Amino acid sequence: MAVKAEHSYRVNVEWLGNRGTGTSGFRDYSRRNLVTASGKPALNGSADRTFHGDADRWNPEELLLAALSQCHMLSYLHVAVRHGVIVTAYTDAASGVLVTSPDGAGRFSGATLRPVVTLADAAQADLANSLHREAAQKCFIANSVNFPVSHEPIAR
Questions:
Q1: pTM recorded for the entire structure
Q2: Which CATH class is domain 60-155?
């Protein structure tokens, strides 16, 4: 791929989970963390509850899935404009599957995006649904992951 431009991003992650004995044991520390970036609200992070985390905080797996969904949405809206499709609402109920191995390693085996797109002209529903392929090709995050990202769009 020829490089047109290069963009850099910076975030800071701070572990907040030392309960006084550090990582002296698997259950002796919290997985709480704080994700920050200049000029933006902080994100309260943790591990998934399955991995001794806090269910009321964002975990990395949810953030990855959110990044995929948000990137696809933004790519889709751009593609819709280029094709004269007026979108008036967009929601996505995305899901992903993480598989783990006995040694504790894991990876996403896939993600499914389920965008529901509301159109100014419902007669463009077929065209609107077909634009998800082009949006997927343009999505920076989807192009960066090594697992399949499928789409189950509904346009109305």
A1: 0.91
A2: alpha beta
